[in-house]
Design brief:
10 helices; 3-stranded antiparallel beta sheet; Alpha-Beta Plaits; 2 domains; alpha+beta; 5 strands; binds iron/sulfur cluster; two-stranded antiparallel ribbon; elongated; disordered C terminus
């Protein structure tokens, strides 16, 4: 056996490092949760909100359909007649009592589907925990959006930028439940602070990504793609710069103080 063959045989163990070395070239996939969080899907089922119309009136009419459909039996609603002098909702009645027990909720969104007035929807925030039963039962005062149409932030909730955006995404995505012809057509009312929301991106060409802020999955996950899986603009120096910018933005977000406005 010649020197060349001997060397080849002696160093053959290096072949075992091939997979490891290949992985070292790839972008990191570990996220330092909870400091660093992945962007959440637009239809994430998180903590509920009770919405208001653009004029500030509450959308809930106290019909109890959400409570009736809830498979976990965790919603408690009581309706009352609207005071004539100072109505709370545009209908005859409004939600006088509204509670959700988060020790039971499975975030199925059936309440969102059942609501005839788009009053109950879900934010993207799911990072909340409690140390007692009372905190786990959210009352109407905690669920109704504030004067700007934003969810109220409770001390034990970890809100991050974007968690309170598009709280009606799931409702808008599933509302055209008939013919596909109606997909992308607005059939919902405006919301306080946001006006009439654009249709959520779906299967048709009528999606409005700019208005809804939707990013395609390829963009969100481009950091983790192999070079041959990347689009032209995600490859090479341009792509590397884009990824670098993304990382810098992420670091800035991590270093900025958390939002504590309650
Ligand atoms: S998300 Fe599902 S389990 Fe939770 S309150 Fe709504 S219907 Fe009930
Ligand atoms: S949230 Fe909707 S379904 Fe539930 S009581 Fe109010 S209006 Fe009815």
């Amino acid at each position: 056996m010649g020197l060349r063959e001997t060397l080849k045989e002696e160093l053959s163990f290096l072949g075992g490092f091939k997979v490891t070395l290949e992985q070292m070239r790839r972008s990191r996939v570990t996220w330092q949760y909870p400091l660093e969080k992945k962007p959440k899907p637009i239809r994430q089922h998180g903590r509920h909100v009770l919405n208001r119309y653009e004029d500030g009136m509450e959308k809930c009419i106290g019909c109890e359909l959400c409570a009736g459909v809830c498979p976990a039996d965790c919603i408690y609603v009581r309706g009352a007649d609207n005071p004539e002098a100072d109505p709370v909702s545009p209908g005859e009645r409004y939600g006088f009592v509204y509670e959700i027990n988060y020790l039971r909720c499975i975030h199925c969104d059936m309440c969102v589907e059942a609501c005839p007035t788009e009053a109950i929807t879900e934010s993207k925030m799911f990072e909340f925990s409690f140390t007692n039963r009372a905190d786990a039962i959210y009352t109407k005062a905690e669920l109704v959006v504030d004067d700007e149409g934003r969810p109220r932030r409770l001390p034990w909730e970890d809100w991050r930028p974007g968690d309170d955006d598009h709280t009606s995404a799931w409702m808008r995505a599933t509302s055209p439940s008939g013919s596909a012809e109606y997909e992308g057509r607005v059939q919902w009312s405006g919301e306080l602070g946001y006006g009439v929301r654009a249709p959520e991106g779906g299967q048709s060409g009528r999606r409005d990504d700019e208005a809804t802020g939707i990013r395609s999955l390829r963009d969100v996950l481009s950091l983790h793609l192999d070079d041959d899986e990347r689009t032209d603009e995600q490859r090479g120096v341009q792509g590397a710069l884009r990824r670098l910018r993304h990382r810098v933005e992420l670091q800035k977000k991590l270093l900025s103080p958390r939002r504590k406005d309650a």
